[in-house]
Amino acid sequence: MSDLLSQEFLTALISGGLVAAMPLLFASLGELVSEQAGVLNVGLEGYMLFGAFLAFVIAYNTGSEWLGLAAGIVAGAVGSLLMVVFSVRMRLDQIVIGIAIILLAEGATSLLFDASYAESRPSLGTPSELAIPLLKEIPILGESVFSQHPIVYVGIALAFVVGWILKRTSAGLSIRAAGERPEALDAAGVSVTATRTWATLCAGGLAGLGGGYLAIVGAGSFTPFITQGAGFIAIVIAMLSRGVAPWTIVGAVLFGMSLSIATALQLIGVEIQTDYVQMLPFIAVIVVLVLFARRSYLPSALALPYVRGEK
Amino acid sequence: MLALLAVLMLGGVAAGCGSDDDDDEGDGGGEAPISKFAIVAPEKGNDYGWNQQGVEAAEQVASDLGIEVEVADNAGYEDVSPILRELSTTAGAEFVVAQASGYNTTAPDVAAQTGVPELVWDNPEANIPETSATAGTASQEGAYLAGVLAAKTSESGNLGIVISADDTNWNKQAGGFVAGARSEDPDVEINLAQIGQAGYADTAGGKRVTEAVIADGADVVFGMGDGSSFGMLQAVEAADGVTFIDVIGDKTSIDDQGVLLSSVLWSFDGLYQDAIDDIGAGTFGEEGYELDLENGGISLLQTDLIDDETWNQLEDTKQQIIDGEIKVPLTEDKAQVEDLIAQG
Question: Distance (Å) from the C-alpha of residue A101 to the closest C-alpha of chain B?
Fold first, then answer.
């Protein structure tokens, strides 16, 4: 049985939980913005796959993690253009288009990877990390929470920035109006289509960044289907956040830490069947749903196309 | 979707407008009982694992016998009956290898319909004379050797096993590994961690869980995971003084850091050859096949990290298993593996 008090072991578990949480944080943050504008991105998983693949390719070929992450943002945003064109502009069903985007991303990234890297299977090596002065000296937390890749701190700050934009700026007001009362936004002279377009591109870019983080920091490589359903978990986290961006941090970290706890429970040899241990992250989400779902709030025009003059 | 693409590609090949890249015609003596066979694999044949081993073995056997082989890889895990039927009819295969345990109920049905014999995995009920036959592995025998090697190599006395899912083949090998390690060092500590319900492609999960296992003290990690094993390898490479034992394929060519201690290799050449011979003799389907240490279907990869003395001992142990002097436990369920670990 493992020594639970081992500093190295606890550090690895907390660090691993955070690493697992970050792709969910970025993707759910983007989805939250998009949902507030009335666009449900079922294809979030696809944006993440596009982002993961291009981030891996650029990071591997340039040796720059930052260029790779930037490429992930671009790839995710380009992927979300499909949603913009077919759902926001042409008003086709958001769920159907979202599923199509996932299938396209899975097929395209697998095909491209197999054609280019399946033989060599390159890896990116150990990712860089930024240790925060003084805080890094704290036992266990110093080497886990405060010694992460710099984009982790950017992501956490971004959740608060997005929250502020949504609540305190005219752009945020437009986004929320596009999801709540698009006809009112239209009457005020602001384009609903343009607002939803930018919100969807934001979702694509942030999900792509999440995918890029997953490939560069989380896995250190790319494997077909690497996202393993993270996009769907991110959608749930975005919905549970009830339009409050910083709550995405809570949801993502809860899920990531649950994954780490599931590993820990196996290693310490608890007398519970592994099947149940493996369900822990999902049980955590279900518990949160039960506790907060009744109070959850989704924009009234979510997933509905906007047609001027149509009720 | 992938299966559909595969069917379309097969149609193209059958119509004469496909690439010949996947058609290998060997230069053998031309005495083979069939002139063409096919293999259907669920993923691409370049995964350094199950699919690659299967495809390369098929191409090798085709070359040895001087016959053609049609490779339909990346066929997915969905309903492959259209692909199997296409290969048996339009593509002209006289024998089909259905290289996934997930195909083991569909393939016998297609074989009965088309009359073209099919080789399936892990379905004893599929042994039907001149129609279909099943294959399995005694991979726990190779894993036993891996366990002995790990226990001899470990300096911390702590070994880690990481699996991508609760999979029968992973459980069999995990049990063999535990038994082998304990035979070398009864006090060795062994910890088992599973990535997820079906984390075969979860590279990030493989890395995360392996990092935790290493942080728990393991300095030799036995990893079974398909795509997720690349994440396991990453975690091992990032750690100091930790080595990795893989399964099924040989990742030596991508082991940049020299951490690959060994691999429990699965070789399908002899299996496919035996099946074709049995088709010629009219005995195909009368009984199943098994890869084991004795017939060379299961073996341990020798790397530079294994010294001669250790390798010689492993060879002796291998012979003892073949002779029946060592009985390797069969643990098809994960609970059996956990019980075995708990006995230490």
Answer: 13
A107 shares contact with chain B (CB less than 8 Å): yes
Q: Are residues B154 and B104 in the same domain?
A: no
Runs of H (alpha helix) within chain B: 2-14, 50-65, 81-88, 106-114, 139-153, 168-184, 203-215, 229-238, 269-281, 308-322, 334-342
Higher pLDDT, residue A303 or B305: B305
CATH value at residue A240: 1.10.3470
In this complex, do A123 and B204 lie within 8 Å of one another by their Cβ atoms? no
Distance CA B129, CA B106 (A): 17
CA distance B233 to chain A (A): 10
Cβ contacts of A190 within 8 Å, gap of 6 or more: A174, A177
Structural domains counted in chain A: 1
Task: Name the residue range of residue A280's domain.
Answer: 7-117+135-295
Query: What's the distance, CA A163 to chain centroid?
Result: 16
Q: Which residues constitute the domain of residue B91?
A: 2-137
CA distance B72 to A293: 47
Average pLDDT (B262-282) is: 96
Q: Is residue B288 part of a domain?
A: no
Which residues from chain B sit within 8 angstroms of residue A19, using beta carbons? 204, 208
Interface probe, candidates B1, B208, B236, B246, chain A, greatest A C-beta count within 10 A: B208
- Nearest by CB to residue A121, choosing from B48, B199, B217, is B48
CB contact, 8 Å: A64 with chain B? no
Q: Cα(B237)–Cα(B222) distance, rounded to whole angstroms?
A: 14
The CATH code of the domain that includes B303 is 3.40.50.2300
Tell me the residues of chain A between 116 and 155 that have a Cβ less than 8 Å away from chain B.
118-123, 125-126
Final residue in a domain of this structure, among B122, B137, B152: B137
- The pTM (predicted TM-score) of the whole model is 0.87
Evaluate whether residue B312 is within a structural domain.
yes
Longest dimension (CA), chain B: 63
Cβ atoms of B330 and B175 within 8 Å: the answer is yes
Within this chain, do residues B189 and B314 fall inside the same structural domain, yes or no? yes
Same domain, B156 and B168: yes
CB contact under 8 A, A263 and B212: yes
Do B170 and B80 belong together in one domain? no
B213 shares contact with chain A (CB less than 8 Å): yes
Residues B119 and B145 in one domain: no
Q: Which amino acid is at B245?
A: I
Contact B215/A12, CB-based, under 8 Å? Answer: yes
pLDDT digits (tens, 9 = 90+) for A110-157: 999 989 998 889 999 889 999 999 999 998 899 889 999 999 999 999
Residue B116, phi then psi, degrees to nearest 5: -95, 120
- The number of distinct structural domains making up chain B is 2
Q: Which of residues 324-343 of B touch A (CB under 8 A)?
A: 334-335, 338, 342
